[in-house]
Amino acid sequence: MLINIGRSLAASAQSRAPVVNAASFEFLNTLPTPWTYTRSDTAATIRDSDGKLQSLAANTPRFNHDENGRALGLHIEASSTNKCENYNAAPSDLTGVTLSSGSAVLSIVDDTSALASVGLDEIGSGAAIKIDNSASGSSCTVDFAGTFGNTNPHSLSIWVRMETGAGDVRRTGSGSNTVTLSGDNYQRYMLENETPSSSSSAMRIRLNPGAVAYCILNQLEEGAFCTSEIIVAGSAATRQQDALTLSSLDAEPYFDEGEGFIAARFCLDRLVSGTDQYLLVASDGTSANTLGLRIDSTADKSLRGYVRSGSTNKHVVANGDKQVTDIVQAAGIRWQSGETTILSGGLENEQTYTGDPSGIDELTIGKLGSSTNPLYGHIQRIELGKVSGSNTDLGSRMYQSGDLQLVGGGQSLMVGHFDSQESAGDDGKAALESRLREIDPDKSIVWANAGTGSSAASKTTQASNFWWDLATSSRGDAYDAFYAAVDDAGLQPSAILWSQGEQDSHQIGLATTRSEYKQALEAIFADMRSSFGDIPVFIQKIGRRSSFTNTGGMQAVREVQQELIDENSWCHFGAESFDQGLYDATHLDDAGYAIVGQRLANAVAGYFGETVESTQGPYISAASLVGATVTVTLAHDGGTDFTPTSGIEGFHVFDSSGELTIGSAIRGDANTVVLTLTSTPSGTTTLYYVHDAELGVNTANMVKDNASLSMPLQAAKFQLQP
Question: Could you tell me which CATH number the domain at 619-721 has?
């Protein structure tokens, strides 16, 4: 493992370590040799590349797509039985569908056009069940044949469109929960984790008086959540467990049980409560000798190693990377001579032990053993190799060129995104990654923490825990820790996210000059870009404090940060944080980290060419002084207006005598704020929006726009007159 990739990465970071005898397998459209897929049923479904729901023959791999035809990968699920007994995909008559109360009219109709709008026109005949309660002044209920059969938790689902009115999905019997039906387009309604009062309960739809509904693909299955659509044709049907296996693994030239790696790309449908989900397991056909990865059963659902030798656990530790659903993720495991490391989400966990697994001859995807602990999700890619390499090499196998590999540097306001001061949570990281994945779900997003709390940019601020020594042009301990963290995370960074300056702000004007602070940042960023290539740096600007004594220190940091953004094409505004709540005198609360995480995500996405509503929020484009009136002109980015309209806080005006009193600060129009001073300025006059520590400000009275993710007016400094 590299101790510090920054010292040797410039020439080698963008190339992989020389791994021989490796093989990669894609599972987006075809089943690669020599993999075997089995599933002995005809009830399973997928969406094809046109986004159309289709049924599949037995043992046909489930290469799945979303409704827009985007490839998701090979679908893996546990077995499940649809207990309904009607014809749910291609109803030709009302067999198994009964009007149990009311006077609605039931019929089978052609609804191809409406079904086609959501990709359901090819799963059957284009027919749907119509429930017409338009002529009735009372509600009606319609039941589907097939009972729960026991009183265990079950889940109900059905595709419905409401032509008029509303209704709900429920079960028969007392104490039923409901899911409301509304909207004139087909959508899948799910009533999950429903425990019946009787084993004879069945699935039911209830419509309000005057309502008309069309439905298809009703499903009743045992379990706490709904799985993919299962076709029934007059009797219950079971979709069997998907099984994907690479047999005779020990005979392949790219595998060695004594040393190697496995990297995977995948997308999870569900995070299951109370049970592990096995992503991949190389084994001897039993659980006695294994090398693999699983999704943890505990509340945080992080990635966990699974290594056993002679039925003894060797690596069953989680790395803390909380898994999420509906996005592309990457994970890997490498092993060599009694050492195993798991890696995902910029987090590793390494275990050493004696007694290596032996006799490993197969690789199973999506389950452990014959049928236990199944995965619910999609496998996109697997790569195996015979040389363990470093974390950086493993990361190069996990991530692809279009992925975003982000590194957070700086001090505790960066660390707080990963390990907050309020709860030790990772709300900021989760919000950033979630937002970026919403924008482009095909990219795997990883954001690693490489910050150090209470660290100074310049050694002049403090002699230890600093990033750069200007006197020797060398790195400090915090900077060495940064490079070590990048190495451990296995990343080749796409961008640096930086939040720092609080420590230096205490000493600017005392031990450290403003110029020294700026020089230190310039040297740090130049060193990063020398190591990682021509990558962007995004600055989360310094915020505010509830207490602070070194007057002017925070203002100097804020101005230096803005100068770096203005002077360098590679340096970008990341996010403001001053408007968010503080947990203590310095750090954001959990909610604040989540909001700032989303703002950083928008800035990064905009830089990388994605379409986002707002990347920076409103800013001051001009300011003028006439007498005792300051007119501030705003330029919008995403929003079109702002609040509040009066009592606006955060503006400061200074002249040669000091700070002047602002008598009123009001909205002039959607693009102007008008400040009325209590006296006319003289001499050099300067306008600030957000000044120094901004002590005592009521953030509710600071300017925010009306974008869907409301953004604050950016901090600024304007010279009004000489």
Answer: 2.60.40.1220
